[in-house]
Amino acid sequence: MTSLAARLAPESIKKLIPYQSARRIGGAGRLWLNANELEHGIHYATHTEDYNRYPDFLPHDIAVAYQNYCQTNVPAVAVRGADEAIDLLVRTFCKPGADKILISSPTYAMYEFCADAMAVETIDVPLKGKEFQLDVEGIIQNAPQAKIVFLCSPNNPTGNLLSRTDIISVLEGTQHDALVVIDEAYIEFELAETVIDLIATYPNLVVIRTLSKAFGLAAVRCGFILANEDIMEYVLKLIPPYPMPDCSAKIVLDALSAEGIDIALKSTSEVIKIKHTFIEAIKNNQWIEHIYPSSTNFVLIRTNSKAQLFNYLKENGVVTRNQSHEPALNNCVRITIGSPESMMEVAQLINQYSISSL
Ligand SMILES: Cc1ncc(COP(=O)(O)O)c(C=O)c1O
């Protein structure tokens, strides 16, 4: 007999496959290099005396600190991670069962997931070529059918930046039709390439950011939406009543102090160096077909055998992300850049690996 829950749940939720976050997939391992976190966190000592009170509605000091960090006057609002920003934007601007969003795959899966959850259709205009760049014409042609174009730069899982010229063409071509959301979760690894400055010229541009990556604060759950006042006015209608837990807010303020920013940017340069050393150490393996250029804290590797590298690393206690479910990323594994010791171990494992050993 059909359960009450099954009878009550809308079709869109019944069909929904839960988002496969690294934590939800779980597993066992020694080295966790599957969620693009900072392997060794920065320690923030903090306390709050006000656990009995609800936190601020929209912590103004955090918004100002983030604007200062970004050197912008564009309105900023803190939310519980960039994931909440994506969800909020879809719920604010898309009508369930009627509207569409546009993505360029392969990209971060949460855009489509949040749309599916709202019975909002996703149009995919795939990234082009080995460089995974935008199909600008295809996006502009399809954008009138979509309310939001979600683009990710640097892109997860491919690791590359999208061309600024292409982003500008998309903004020009869609300005009367759709919002263009640029997800800059990994921008600290190529900070000069931010498009926040374009918000002044293109009112349909929204930028989302996070402290989960370069700032090493994935557990704190803090992301940001940066957009013009008129977009913000609508987003703020739906924002949860208390979008930032007070204990998180205190840590975020420390992280966005001059000292906190300095620590995060130094740690980012360190990760970039470790990444280059790691790539040098593994690049001559005959079974590695391609290491994609990376503007992030992870590398995408195409091997010449499906899932073997992923399984081999897993058997050796190293948890990475298998990307083979994406047709364009067949045989690809994504590896987060961890500490020098971890990456040396992974490089040694990779160099010991031979296809015949499996
Ligand atoms: C491109 C991209 N956007 C957003 C997120 C989510 O970030 P947050 O931890 O702030 O929710 C991630 C996390 O992996 C990501 O890769």
UniProtKB/TrEMBL annotation:
Domain Aminotransferase class I/classII large, chain residue ranges per copy: 47-347
Keywords of this entry: Amino-acid biosynthesis, Aminotransferase, Histidine biosynthesis, Pyridoxal phosphate, Transferase
Top-level taxon of origin: Bacteria
GO biological process: L-histidine biosynthetic process
List of residues that carry N6-(pyridoxal phosphate)lysine: 213
Coiled coil location: none
Pathway(s) where this gene product acts: Amino-acid biosynthesis; L-histidine biosynthesis; L-histidine from 5-phospho-alpha-D-ribose 1-diphosphate: step 7/9
Keyword set includes Amino-acid biosynthesis: yes
Sequence similarity: Belongs to the class-II pyridoxal-phosphate-dependent aminotransferase family. Histidinol-phosphate aminotransferase subfamily.
Alphabetical list of NCBIfam families matching this protein: hisC
Official protein name in the record: Histidinol-phosphate aminotransferase
Record organism: Vibrio halioticoli NBRC 102217
Gene: hisC
